[in-house]
């Protein structure tokens, strides 16, 4: 992108109606500079291997990855497998499968909800999850980044919902290379977000962006620049903190009458690229 100092990235959930193969074609045509690979879009077996070969052949850099199982404990979106050991094994399998096509990429994790409301137990399992997997990721040439989610996801997908809680979990885990995934939709209401960015910018491994309205479903995000998130101000705070990774558009839009998935997804990509440029320049 011409003005903003971050590569323009696209999360494959943003183009959920497209196939994996179409993602690759359209992203290349539209000037997307990095992709957040979503394992849920990949087939198994030979068909999946062919998709990964197509990704390598495309030359499109993979900045980050959303594995099929991302949490230490079962969550609403990822209820299986049940045990933490099995979930660690599933995440490890994703690392081994996808790291070869994503050198240097960030693999996202979420905490999942507190099991039976027991946050102490849940966070202890999450620490174990990251302690076991961070060295595996490092050996494969990639990194892990834990993502705090918006409070609307409590008791369903997350135990942490502020930037500071993400930092605390990273420090408690105490392993090299574990970073933080900063999703503006999830964290923009945190009153200490900008302070956290400026004081712990070295921990931020990947940036995801979209915009907010009061959700009508659990998948109701909007395009950058169409809501109240101060995207430009946050982008500048990140740049000043030393963040130099990709800026990934991650939009979910399902179960609402004006779903963005029902519109022109090529236009959606262009609109978000332009909106990010405008947000950057407007906050300069």
UniProtKB/TrEMBL annotation:
<feature type="domain" description="Xylose isomerase-like TIM barrel">
    <location>
        <begin position="25"/>
        <end position="267"/>
    </location>
</feature>
<dbReference type="InterPro" id="IPR013022">
    <property type="entry name" value="Xyl_isomerase-like_TIM-brl"/>
</dbReference>
<keyword id="KW-0223">Dioxygenase</keyword>
<protein>
    <submittedName>
        <fullName>4-hydroxyphenylpyruvate dioxygenase</fullName>
    </submittedName>
</protein>
<keyword id="KW-0670">Pyruvate</keyword>
<keyword id="KW-0119">Carbohydrate metabolism</keyword>
<keyword id="KW-0560">Oxidoreductase</keyword>
<dbReference type="Pfam" id="PF01261">
    <property type="entry name" value="AP_endonuc_2"/>
</dbReference>
<dbReference type="InterPro" id="IPR036237">
    <property type="entry name" value="Xyl_isomerase-like_sf"/>
</dbReference>
<dbReference type="InterPro" id="IPR050312">
    <property type="entry name" value="IolE/XylAMocC-like"/>
</dbReference>
<dbReference type="GO" id="GO:0051213">
    <property type="term" value="F:dioxygenase activity"/>
</dbReference>
């Amino acid at each position: 992108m011409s003005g903003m100092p971050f590569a323009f990235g696209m999360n494959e959930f943003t183009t959920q109606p497209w196939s994996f193969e179409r993602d690759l074609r359209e992203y290349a045509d539209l000037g997307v500079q990095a992709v957040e690979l979503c394992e849920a879009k990949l087939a198994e077996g030979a068909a999946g291997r062919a998709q990964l070969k197509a990704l390598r052949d495309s030359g499109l850099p993979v900045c980050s990855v959303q594995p099929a199982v991302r949490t230490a404990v079962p969550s609403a979106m990822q209820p299986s497998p049940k045990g933490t050991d099995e979930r660690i094994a599933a995440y490890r399998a994703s690392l081994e499968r996808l790291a070869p096509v994503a050198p240097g990429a960030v693999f996202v994790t979420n905490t999942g909800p507190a099991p039976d409301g027991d946050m102490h137990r849940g966070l202890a399992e999450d620490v174990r999850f990251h302690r076991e997997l961070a060295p595996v990721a490092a050996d494969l040439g990639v990194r892990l980044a834990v993502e705090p989610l918006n409070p609307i996801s409590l008791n369903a997908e997350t135990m942490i919902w502020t930037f500071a809680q993400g930092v605390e979990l990273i420090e408690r885990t105490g392993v090299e290379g574990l970073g933080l995934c900063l999703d503006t939709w999830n964290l923009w209401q945190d009153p200490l977000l900008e302070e956290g960015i400026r004081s712990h910018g070295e921990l931020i491994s990947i940036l995801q962006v979209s915009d907010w309205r009061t959700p009508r479903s659990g998948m109701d995000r909007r395009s950058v620049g169409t809501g109240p998130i101060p995207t430009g101000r946050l982008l500048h705070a990140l740049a000043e903190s030393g963040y130099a990774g990709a800026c990934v558009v991650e939009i979910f839009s399902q179960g609402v009458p004006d779903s963005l998935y029902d519109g022109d997804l090529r236009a959606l990509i262009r609109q978000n690229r332009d909106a990010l440029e405008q947000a950057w320049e407007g906050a300069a």
